[in-house]
């Protein structure tokens, strides 16, 4: 099907191989990434590590796990903006914690509502978004970019926090499929919509390219991100592995446990990367 649609374009969206998609991300780029359950572009993450990217500003919408742990262990990160980094039942995010203790990147602590609000501000073209729930928390002491003002529409004292908009260079995620016109099916994962709307462009890996038009029916169009937001697509089967992709495939529990054990030390993480990142056959 891909050949029938042309070797380099799906509609007007570039169809690329994995490494060319990764090559669009420069050093120092600000990227938005989704939580582990939404569709993480893990194959693209490994390609980013192979490129030895540096000083990335990673915005987790609103949390992350394996993806950020690997990027931190590989020295790719300059800033992390998140409400949590966790591998959940598969262990501690050792490489993230080690890099954080060594002050190898800047940490911008947030909350889930704060990240979502700031991302939505950028998507709406606003310079900031107000949020009340942060009042009284210690986070305000560590986030000088968050400002407390008096509500201008209230006569009495009514403080509220202003969050600067988060506008990433790229939203980076994995989805089940795209159509022949470059539209991407994201189902009910609305955080992917918010990420795409806030970002300059989205770089997406998909399980497959289908010779259909996702905007042709109300049912499929409702769960589709249009090609206007897409800067590049790569067809990568099992591109979220070893994480899950919705109800299409589950977490590779054995592999995640292996990663959790190997990544306890820098030496073990280096061995892991030699086998599963730099040796591409082992990761397929």
Shape: globular
**SSE succession:** EEHEHEHEHEHEHEEEEHEHEEHH
Tell me the distance between the termini.
22 Å
Which architecture of the largest domain would the CATH scheme give at its second level? 3-Layer(aba) Sandwich
CATH top level assignment of the largest domain: Alpha Beta
Q: Into which percentage range does the β-strand content fall?
A: 15-25%
Instruction: Count the beta strands.
Output: 14
How would a textbook summarize the main sheet? 9 strands, mixed
Radius of gyration: 19 Å
Mean pLDDT: 94
Class by SSE composition: alpha/beta
| CATH superfamily heading of the largest domain | Glutaconate Coenzyme A-transferase
Instruction: Kindly state the percentage of residues in helix.
Output: 25-40%
CATH topology term of the largest domain: Glutaconate Coenzyme A-transferase
Q: What's the tally of helices?
A: 10
Instruction: State the domain count.
Output: 2
Enumerate the spans where pLDDT stays under 50 for 5 or more consecutive residues: 1-7
Walkthrough of the structure:
The chain is built from ten helices and 14 strands. By secondary structure, the protein is of the alpha/beta class. The protein folds into two domains: 3-125 and 168-283, Glutaconate Coenzyme A-transferase (3-Layer(aba) Sandwich); 128-164, no CATH class. Strands 3, 4, 5, 6, 10, 11, 12, 13 and 14 form a nine-stranded mixed β-sheet that branches. It has a three-stranded antiparallel β-sheet with strand order 7-9-8, with helices on one face. A two-stranded antiparallel sheet has the order 1-2. A hairpin with a 2-residue loop joins strand 1 and strand 2 (13-14). Residues 1-7 have low confidence and may be disordered.
């Amino acid at each position: 099907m891909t050949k029938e649609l042309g070797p380099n374009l799906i509609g007007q969206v570039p169809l690329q191989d994995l490494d060319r998609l990764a090559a669009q991300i420069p050093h120092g780029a600000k990227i938005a990434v989704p939580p582990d359950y939404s569709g993480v572009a893990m194959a693209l993450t490994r390609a980013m590590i192979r490129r030895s990217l540096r000083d990335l500003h990673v915005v987790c919408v609103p949390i992350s796990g394996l993806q950020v742990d690997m990027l931190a262990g590989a020295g790719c990160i300059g800033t992390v903006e998140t409400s949590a980094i966790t591998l959940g039942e598969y262990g501690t995010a050792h490489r993230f914690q080690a890099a954080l203790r060594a002050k190898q990147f800047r940490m911008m602590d947030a909350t889930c509502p704060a990240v979502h609000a700031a991302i939505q501000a950028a998507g709406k073209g606003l310079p900031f978004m107000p949020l009340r729930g942060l009042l009284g928390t210690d986070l305000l002491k560590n986030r000088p970019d968050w400002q407390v003002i008096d509500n201008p529409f209230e006569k009495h004292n009514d403080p509220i926090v202003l969050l600067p908009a988060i506008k990433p260079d790229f939203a980076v995620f994995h989805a089940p499929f795209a159509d022949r016109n470059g539209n991407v099916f994201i189902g009910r994962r609305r955080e992917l919509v918010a990420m795409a709307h806030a970002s300059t462009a989205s770089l997406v890996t998909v399980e497959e390219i289908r010779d259909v038009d996702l905007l042709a029916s109300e049912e499929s169009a409702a769960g589709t991100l249009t090609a206007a937001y897409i800067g590049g697509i790569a067809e990568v089967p099992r591109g979220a592995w070893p994480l899950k992709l919705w109800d299409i495939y589950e977490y590779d529990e054995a592999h995640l446990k292996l990663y959790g054990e190997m990544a306890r030390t820098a030496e073990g993480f280096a061995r892991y990367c030699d086998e599963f990142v730099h040796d591409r056959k082992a990761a397929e």
